[in-house]
Structure formats: C-alpha cells, structure tokens
Amino acid sequence: MNIVVVGAQWGDEGKGKLIDILSKDVDITVRYQGGSNAGHTVRVGDEQYVFHLLPSAILRKGKICVIGNGVVVDPKALLEEMDGLKRRGIAVTPKQLKIAVNSHVVMPYHRILDGLREKMREHKIGTTGRGIGPCYADKVTRCGIRMVDLLNPRVFRAKLQDNLREKNEYFKKVFNQKGFHFDEIYSEYMTYARRLRAYVCDTALFVNEEISKKKSVLFEGAQGAFLDIDFGTYPYVTSSNTTVGGAPSGSGVAVTSIDKVIAAVKAYTTRVGEGPFPTEFDPKMDEEIRAKGKEFGATTGRARRCGWFDSVLVRYAAVTGGFDELAIMKLDVLDELKTIKLCSAYKYKGKILKDFSHDYEVICRAKPVYIEMPGWQKPINAVREFRKLPPQARAYVERMEELVGVPIKYISIGSERDEIIVR
Ligand code: GDP
Predict the structure, then answer these.
(1) Is residue 362 domain-resident?
(2) Quick one: which of 16, 63, 182, 210 is 20 to 30 A from 340 by CA?
(3) Is there an atom of ligand 1 within 6 Å of 224 CB?
(4) Strand ranges, E, within 68-121
C-alpha cells in the first residue's frame, strides 16, 4: 500500500505525528517537495525531535527515508540535522537515507536573496528566509544546481561561475550588496559534497524498484493545501506543489502507484505569516488557543494566527486532492471551550458562497457563516475509542466529516504517539 499524507489547511496540521505513526507500517518514507522551511515535530516519550529536511521516519530503525527530486536541499541544514541526531545517538547511514541526484541545491545566494526580496516588498509574503523560493525559481529558469552537479567538480565549477556572473551583478546593481566570492562557496560546497556523496542516488529508480518488490511507501507532504503554489492563497504560498500532485512529480513514482491519500486537518485552523484567513479569531481567543495548542512555528518560532475550523477550505482541498481519509489533529486543544464554531460557507456581498475563491478580494472580505456547537469541557487525551468520546466531541467530529464529505479515520487527542483514536 502506497500512501500520500498531506496537510489540508495552511500547514502545521500535525502531519509529523501522523507520519510518525503511519511510518511504523511502511518500508520507505519519501519527502517530495519543500525544503528546510518545513518543520515537523515528533514527540517520543520525553524526547522531542524537530525535522526540517529529513523525513520524520528517520527515528524508526530499519526504515528507509528518501529525499525526492521535488525537494530543494540545503546541504548545510541537512548535515546539521544529521549531526544533531548523531549527538543524540541516532546515526543516519547511506543505507537508511537516499537523496535524489536531481534534487536542487539551496545556495548561499538563495538565502540572501530571499531576505532582500522580502524586505523590498510592500506586501510581504512572510517567507521563512531559508532560500527556498529563490532556489525553486532557479530550477524553473534553468540555472539551478542539482545534487548530481555538486558531485562533479567540473560541472559544479562551471555552473557556479555562470550563476555568480549573473547574480553578483544583480546583487550589486539592484540591492547595492557586494556579491559573493566563488572560492568561498566552491570550497564550502565541495566539503558538503564529500560528506553527502554516499547518500545520493537515482531515488526514482530506487523507489520504483522497491515498489515492484511489493515494498510500501509513505509520501510525506510538507506545508499544506493552501500554501500550494497553484491551489493556495497565492501569493501567500510556498514555492512548490504541496497538494497530492506534488508526490508523483517530486518523487518519480507514477500516480497509478498511489493507493491512498490521507489528509491531516487541525480541529481548528492556523496559518503562519501573512495572507487572507476568513475564520481568524479575535485577539483574545487567538491568544488562548495559541497558548493551548502551542502554536508557534517549528522552523521560525513565529506565533501562528489561529481561527475556527473552516470547512470551505478543507472541502476545496479534499476535491483538488482526492482525499480518501481525514486525520483530525489536536482535538484536545478545544477541550475547555464552552461553544465551538465551524465555518460552513462564506457570505460575500449578500451572497452565500459554498466554495473557496481564488479572487483575493473575495477571500479577504468574505465573512464566515458559522454553525455553533456545544463544547465537551473535559480532557479527552485518555480516550482510545471513538464511542467513548464525550457526545459533544463526537458530534463535532461527525459534523466536520459531514461538511467536508470525507471519512474521518484518525482523531488525535494529544501530542504523544499513543494519544490517537483510530476509527
Ligand atoms: P506539522 O508540520 O504538520 O507536522 O505540524 P507541527 O510539527 O507543527 O506539529 C504540531 C505540534 O502539535 C507538534 O508540537 C506536535 O507534537 C503537536 N501535536 C500533534 N498532534 C497533537 C494533538 O493531537 N494534540 C496536541 N495537543 N498536540 C499535538
């Protein structure tokens, strides 16, 4: 069984925990898009791990992790992550981690450009400043440097020279910066290449071969549906396809090999950074849920904006993503609320809108139409069976299911591995 796990909102849905649970039963976990701007948090007992580039399944012995071609790899960040795990007693071997030859490499100029561009914008996107956007831009304008290039000093030299020739002009003339020295970057990246060489291979061939041997694969999406470059709240999005379509193109595994799509959905909504957010809470409620849900970015530490569950968004994500099952995450965060609201539609210029709109003005000004439900007002993290949840919590979950139109299979009720209900 080959499964894709995606986020159905603006990311941070708790995919890390879901993937950690699901990866127990699969042989290979594949990251297929994004870069070190992603952040997945996994708790194992008293230990907490935050992953940016490594698939979270790296914690499971004997499982293989793949960084697919759709990912942009910052070798410095990746090696730091690997070294950090080593210090905690987890050595990442080339048998366990495979990096795609044709994945693109984040360069120092990408990181700097990310910050400079954001600074110049009047309407800031809220980028994490990790150089992800500029790296994807180079991939599309065909001047990117790939892992395979890094392993061939002659090719790397020529490509880096070409890039610096153009980019240094740009840094000097547009941003009034001094630009980059070839020798410094070259020797820094050659060091990375030496350390990463053994991990790099044609991961598309590798994964397909494993699939033909009946091995199971979990495709680990980063970010969420509304950060998708095509289907998200553009331009407040990330630079890759975070929806299911990113999995085949970002891994080289055909759509026909994918058996199931599971989407992680938070029991409420959050988003980091700028951009429209119809169901955003008022400041008091925002602060309350942020504190309870510990809604601070795993990558940047930024406070996340919080709001009510928005079924208009999740329905759209379900249609464009072909979701088979939903995993409701962080239901316990709503434990103490007296009443809980769900957005069933939007109201705009006197009309009821059932569907998400790509019109920036509509999505910024649309007013949510809410259904109000009573809260359960008791802790639920010890419950392991759906029927043992308080009736109000069951009713809330069932209403979410009905509004989105996709069966809810998992309900997460705490950050620990075992705090989950499987229906
Ligand atoms: P991801 O990027 O989608 O994996 O999301 P994060 O890594 O930001 O995960 C969200 C945070 O929520 C992490 O700190 C998790 O430990 C935590 N978490 C996951 N599921 C639950 C849950 O059901 N309840 C609570 N209270 N916390 C959870």
Answers:
(1) yes
(2) 16
(3) no
(4) 72-73, 97-100, 104-105
pLDDT in tens, 288-306: 999 999 999 876 788 999 9
User: How many Å apart are CA 111 and CA 76, to the nearest integer?
Assistant: 12
Which atom of ligand 1 lies nearest, measured to the CA of 331?
23
Ligand 1 pocket, residue 14 CB under 6 Å:
yes
Ligand 1 pocket test, candidate residues 6, 302, 329, most atoms within 8 A of CB: 329
Q: How many domains does the chain have?
A: 3
In one-letter notation, the amino acid at residue 323 is F
Residue nearest to atom 11 of ligand 1 (CA): 14
Q: Which CB contacts under 8 angstroms, 24+ apart, belong to 47-51?
A: 47/88, 49/85, 50/298, 51/16, 51/81
Question: Do 271 and 281 meet the contact criterion of CB atoms below 8 Å apart?
Answer: no
Same domain, residue pair 396 and 290? yes
- Same domain? 338 vs 250: no
Cα 163 to ligand 1 centre (Å)? 39
Looking at the structure, do residues 183 and 34 belong to the same domain, yes or no? no
Examine the domain organization and report whether 395 and 279 are in the same domain.
yes
Q: Please give the mean pLDDT across all residues of the chain.
A: 95
Q: pLDDT band for 350, please (50, 70, 90 cuts).
A: very high
User: Residue 323 domain-assigned?
Assistant: no
Summarised one tens digit per residue, pLDDT across range 31-84 is 999 999 887 777 788 888 888 999 988 988 889 999 999 999 999 999 999 999
Q: How far is the CA of 114 from the centre of ligand 1 (A)?
A: 27
Domain that holds residue 126: 105-195
Given the CA of residue 420, which atom of ligand 1 is nearest to it?
23
Same domain, 275 and 389: yes
Is residue 409 included in any domain, yes or no? no
Check whether residue 113 and residue 132 sit in a common domain: yes
**Atom number of ligand 1 nearest to Cα 17:** 19
